[in-house]
Specification:
It comes from Schleiferilactobacillus harbinensis. It holds the Pfam family FMN_red. This is NAD(P)H-dependent oxidoreductase. By secondary structure, the chain is of the alpha/beta class. It has a domain of 127 residues: Flavodoxin domain (Rossmann fold, 3-Layer(aba) Sandwich), CATH 3.40.50. Helix content is 37%, strand content 13%. A 5-stranded parallel β-sheet has the order 2-1-3-4-5. The chain is globular and about 40 Å long. The N and C termini lie far apart (44 Å). The C terminus is likely disordered.
């Protein structure tokens, strides 16, 4: 007799996180076979919620808290990355980010911060049909750190168009509906 698993509704983000969890399980088995690391060193993946606004009278903090409270799962944990608090100056590295030769302390800290996450959700307002400069600057600071990590937002079309390879590296894993449960009505190219 065949057993049938109960199907549940899945979003692209939950499917990406499930695939990431399966990958981590395979890594765990590999490490156990090699006996080079302790199992306790393997942790559940962290998803960074990047708040991409720094305007004085912003409401993004409230939206980010709501998102963090509603984006819960035993398969991952979330942490808020507030770009206003990160405080990166406009890109001031002498070499291009693709080379990975970071000389500024703030870039090295930003790189270490981003490397610890398995994926990202970008939370930002739309300013004049675009995304905020503070978010573009934060994305432009790094290159390899963004590669092969799922990233989701509600309108990645413009960041992908303008960020080039960095936008392509952040794979779009957005849901087909808005948080209130209705259809978003947004054209997702």
């Amino acid at each position: 007799m065949r057993r049938h698993r109960k199907r549940h509704e899945s979003t692209p983000l939950s499917l990406a996180l499930l695939a990431n969890q399966r990958y981590l399980n395979r890594c765990k088995l590999h490490l156990l076979r090699k006996k080079e690391f302790l199992v306790s060193e393997i942790t559940i993946p962290k998803i960074g919620l990047i708040l991409g606004t720094n305007r004085p009278r912003r409401i993004g903090g409230t939206i980010a808290e709501w998102t963090q409270n509603h984006l819960t799962s035993p398969a991952f944990e979330t942490e808020l990355i507030d770009l206003e608090k990160v405080g990166l100056p406009f890109l001031d590295e002498p070499d291009i980010p693709a080379h990975g030769h970071y000389t500024q302390a703030h870039t090295q800290v930003w790189s270490a911060t981003i490397q610890q996450y398995a994926g990202f959700v970008l939370l930002f307002p739309q300013y004049n049909w675009g995304y905020p400069a503070v978010l573009k600057n934060a994305l432009d600071y790094l290159y390899a750190e963004w590669a092969h990590k799922p990233g989701g937002d509600h309108c990645l079309r413009q960041p992908r168009r303008h960020a080039g390879p960095i936008g392509d590296a952040l794979r779009d894993q957005r849901a087909a509906h808005d948080p209130a449960g209705g259809e978003s009505g947004i054209d997702h190219e």
